[in-house]
Amino acid sequence: MPQMTMRDALNQALHQEMERDERVIVLGEDVSGGAGGTSGEREASGGIFGVTKGLLPRFGAGRVIDTPISESAIVGAAGGAALAGLRPVAELMFADFVGVCMDQIYNQIAKFRYMFGGKSRCPVVIRMAMGAGMNMGPQHSQSIYALMTAVPGLKVVVPSNAYDAKGLLIEAIRDDDPVVFLEHKALYPRKGEVPEKPYTVPFGEAALVREGEHVTVVAIARMVPFAERAIDALAKEGITCDLIDPRTTSPLDFDTIVESVEGTGRLVVVDESPPRCSLAADIAATVAERAFGRLKAPIAQVTPPHTPVPFAPALERAYVPGPPRIEAAIRHVLKVS
Amino acid sequence: MPQMTMRDALNQALHQEMERDERVIVLGEDVSGGAGGTSGEREASGGIFGVTKGLLPRFGAGRVIDTPISESAIVGAAGGAALAGLRPVAELMFADFVGVCMDQIYNQIAKFRYMFGGKSRCPVVIRMAMGAGMNMGPQHSQSIYALMTAVPGLKVVVPSNAYDAKGLLIEAIRDDDPVVFLEHKALYPRKGEVPEKPYTVPFGEAALVREGEHVTVVAIARMVPFAERAIDALAKEGITCDLIDPRTTSPLDFDTIVESVEGTGRLVVVDESPPRCSLAADIAATVAERAFGRLKAPIAQVTPPHTPVPFAPALERAYVPGPPRIEAAIRHVLKVS
Amino acid sequence: MSDSARLDGTRLLRAYRQMKLIREFEERLHVEIATGEIPGFTHLYAGQEAVAVGVCEQLGDADYIVSTHRGHGHCIAKGCDVGGMMKEIYGRRDGLCHGKGGSMHIADIDKGMLGANAIVGGGPPLAVGAAIACKLRGGGHVSVAFGGDGSANQGTVFEAMNMAVVLQVPAIFVFENNGYSEHTGCDYAVGSKDLTARARGFGLVAECVDGADFHAVYDAMGRAVERARAGGGPSAIEARITRFYGHFEGDPQKYRARDEVARHRETMDCLKRFRERMRAGGELAEAQLDAVDAEVLALIERIVADAKAAPPPVEADLYTDVYIHY
Amino acid sequence: MSDSARLDGTRLLRAYRQMKLIREFEERLHVEIATGEIPGFTHLYAGQEAVAVGVCEQLGDADYIVSTHRGHGHCIAKGCDVGGMMKEIYGRRDGLCHGKGGSMHIADIDKGMLGANAIVGGGPPLAVGAAIACKLRGGGHVSVAFGGDGSANQGTVFEAMNMAVVLQVPAIFVFENNGYSEHTGCDYAVGSKDLTARARGFGLVAECVDGADFHAVYDAMGRAVERARAGGGPSAIEARITRFYGHFEGDPQKYRARDEVARHRETMDCLKRFRERMRAGGELAEAQLDAVDAEVLALIERIVADAKAAPPPVEADLYTDVYIHY
Ligand SMILES: Cc1ncc(C[n+]2csc(CCOP(=O)(O)OP(=O)(O)O)c2C)c(N)n1
Ligand SMILES: Cc1ncc(C[n+]2csc(CCOP(=O)(O)OP(=O)(O)O)c2C)c(N)n1
Ligand SMILES: [Mg+2]
Ligand SMILES: [Mg+2]
User: Fold this and answer.
1) If you classify domain D4-310 with CATH, what class do you get?
2) Pairwise CA distance, residues A203 & C326, whole Å
3) B140 noted as active-site residue
4) Which domain covers residue A161, as residue numbers?
5) pTM of the model
6) Which of C120, C151, C157, C242 to mutate to test the pocket of ligand 1 (most atoms within 8 A of CB)?
7) Is the CB of C167 under 6 A from ligand 1?
8) pLDDT tens digits for B189-214?
9) How many Cβ atoms from other residues are within 10 Å of residue C182's Cβ?
């Protein structure tokens, strides 16, 4: 099977779905680039992260739409186009930019079907690059899955590898509900085996990335490879863990997590966003309730501190939960009884 | 001591602080009203909920500023004025409108001090009316404390009664950090004893509203009077509860809650927003960790379902956690051991 | 010849009936709301009927509109079932949105009505999206964003106008300038005091019409629609109009001159104006119009009775239609 | 007599030095970034110096500016310490923001510099707020919002312009039209293709100037500031300009004609233009300007060396300055 980066896997998914279904359109800032430039060259960009490369030459400017810097209009247009029968994939560039178009996401797109008594469908995918690790500072590094997961009506996807990314994006585009698709920018270059053909990965089904007996670890997006490193290091000492990657945070596959915890009795949740009202808290609270009496130690939440994401590399490294902190948390829950 | 509605208590706080400190200004849509009208009458409104009534005649249009419908500019202007030395109180009318100005709240105002290395202060108060109960439908009824609590750099206030409302608003205006002040609109007419003189209620100190021994109940804003009713009903059967009103959700007085749970061994958290990544989950996760081993039953979270707030009275009543659901949850945690 | 000059008696009668239906729907709501039986809060469209009808008479089911918090008129003009609307406003189970949306969220996708919207400025970006769909499908259909003078100051609306020009999509922005956003005058809140010129600054073809004059609105809309259907891009129409009631029911309207509404009811009543015009031109007889009035009143009577009698939603409804599949 | 005609040799020399300092700061960053030693991503201001300096030479410490992602020029022109800036860009502990903000968040409140901003359109609402403060205090101070041609399409910017007109506050919107937002041309993204006219549509007094001409910018700004200080309300200035580098460092600039930058470096270099003018008018001697060049180059050398040698933040810094008190 070909090895492919997550970026290329996402790009392939977009190509294949646009090919398959002419209702699929892509819109956003510089999704192709070059419009109005002086070189006459279009596709000067292909998306600031390169995920939409090649779409313009293949599908034309009617379906691959460069926009002004107007995120509310971008997301709103995607929503309106979806109500009108298209299947838009909007790109928001950095997830941090939800702030300037939050209403269109949380009050409009997420609520249409409910508000309208089930009469509408709004099959929108909103893609955004999230996460720290590239020293992009406080306004370009946030992980916003808790914000999105909290909103009834949205589905939220957080792929950790190239295989899942492709399958989940195809699933998202085919899904009839609005989907927020969060791509961790530090994972774009991460390579994995990716089948050439289109395939889907279902929402709400966690992946069991490692199997073990002592501790259950749940990790999101970039935290998955970090957790792998911590777990593989501990395996040498005979400490083994279940590593669960939920892949989608809404819906979230609590069953798989609870089942694992019923076996191990111990849970570590690794989350890249600050602790308050976080996904880590969400998972910890639900598991503490459902696996009550089976827990041998308090659940450990491994998260950044309650601070913005700092710029300087030394600070950002301290901010992001890395393998050492994950390893320490696993050891910690093992010590407590 | 005079009995006063929460609305009047808030109004009094604004009057007293504007009197005390000329840097305090108020801005928002129709905070006075009547500008540009044909009657020549100003103060046609005094705030859509009446909270800013009387400020315009007393303090003038330089300090009581009616604005266009431009929430990003309102909140941003408040932030900029604060950086420039004023102490603005912006009114957002309905909390649901954060969607159109979220960036100014979460990426700008909340982060200035950190991003700027501690060199700025941004003493803004953003007042918003939140909550269900008035059949205002999906886009006018949300409780957004989790959304705001998740943001490092913001303080978040959720008064449940007139006394606290006044003291907390004065505290908020005097506080040098940005404060999101959430007023439950169903509580505006709620009366309580309110001293005439200015006073403050400190942030991060929960109130013990009821004392008991069997169960700890934590409730937010309008959930406090609902919990009171449930608890008072149970008291007749000899079941007694600690009822804790955190009053501010950021900072949140976890110590008081944990201490109580260490006594009762049982916790019910009542939250008016949907369950995922909620404040209920936040509190439950932290208490489950800190009071691990002292819990005699799983923590119960009483929240609405994972749905938007519906319009029809029958549905909205079913949506909002009322006294019967709280009572049932208390009985439930008592049954489990 | 203007579009309106080509309207035959049937079409004219239909336009009148639509306006009358909206008026009586709202007048009746004004009465019923005072009884306390209608939940939530409601913004009446009475006085602005010629705008909704003048615009929507130029549209078909395959054209789209997005609406506002003051949406009843747009819904009716675009063909939503009035019985379903009334039930929705009463919060009934078989209301158009099963009681989940209420007055501010009435939608009917099959009729091209993409929803009233309780967020000021929420609609126009959606209209641009529907216009993208129209353009891509190539059927010559258009998408209309209704908005008030107040909404015209919301950033989302500016973005939508610019984007529509950039993408040259068949979107039409209809600004109903009724002089107020809530309790604040348009002269205060619109810095330039000129919505039409501001829209032109965005590169839109824009014109300003008398919103109480059905024929004027219909003709302006005709020009905009024709341009849009021919691929000539987006337009804006400012309709100067008045509302006969407060911002929402219960508004004491202290910001309005004492006689303002009474005066407007005299001079800016689209129904009166329409009747006068028919009298002058002789296209429709008084008796025809009177018959419509009677029919409409009977219809309103019936749908109100139906709505009152209809059952509310049941608790199980709370959980449905959040997702199609979850 | 125009403002610039009144500038004496000292002031002219200072303006030149400011422009030169920005230029060399950026040229050096261009070199240093290529080494990989500078974290994050950086947007260079080279080419646009006459705008920042022409604007800020009209301001004092008690006037405010808000800036953008491309903020180095604005910071320097407003008087931020360049050593502290360089350290910040390197992510050092004693950088202007202690390494927490980086290139896109440099601020210095005491200098009236309310922050660079990594959110396009984030700044203008803040500038309106600072202008409210200026107006309320009555000292005749003003507030300036810098923004790009791309930012001019963001809803927040439109809202800010309208609100400034409504409130008649001393705010000045400076749009640096360098022809591109990232990889998209301004001619595409601004539907009307005319920023100045669009600003006028908002009721702003607006003019368009050659952004490579310090004198032209300075004079336009002089008119805007004078109006604002006198209570005459807000203005907009569009400065047509070019950037000498890519959108961010690393941008291959495929959207630009091959010779575009070279041509602009010939014809739109504000430093060359300034020197020519001095030569023609004789206000400053070549030798004076050469001396400034040498001094600036030495300064840059020193601050880069200092920044490289400076220690990074320590882990404890991560937790400070989230709140003043919590
Ligand atoms: C984002 C947002 N801000 C504020 C409001 C509150 N609000 C509802 S209607 C309205 C006035 C709207 O004025 P206009 O657009 O002129 O419409 P009209 O009511 O006159 O029909 C306001 C401020 C809202 N619903 N949404
Ligand atoms: C809200 C938001 N949207 C998009 C971006 C990404 N972005 C950064 S700079 C930029 C282009 C800005 O163009 P312009 O305003 O002309 O400024 P210039 O870069 O030319 O100085 C974009 C799209 C952003 N930072 N913030
Ligand atoms: Mg209006
Ligand atoms: Mg630009």
Assistant:
1) alpha beta
2) 8
3) yes
4) 3-193
5) 0.98
6) C120
7) no
8) 999 999 999 999 999 999 999 999 99
9) 23
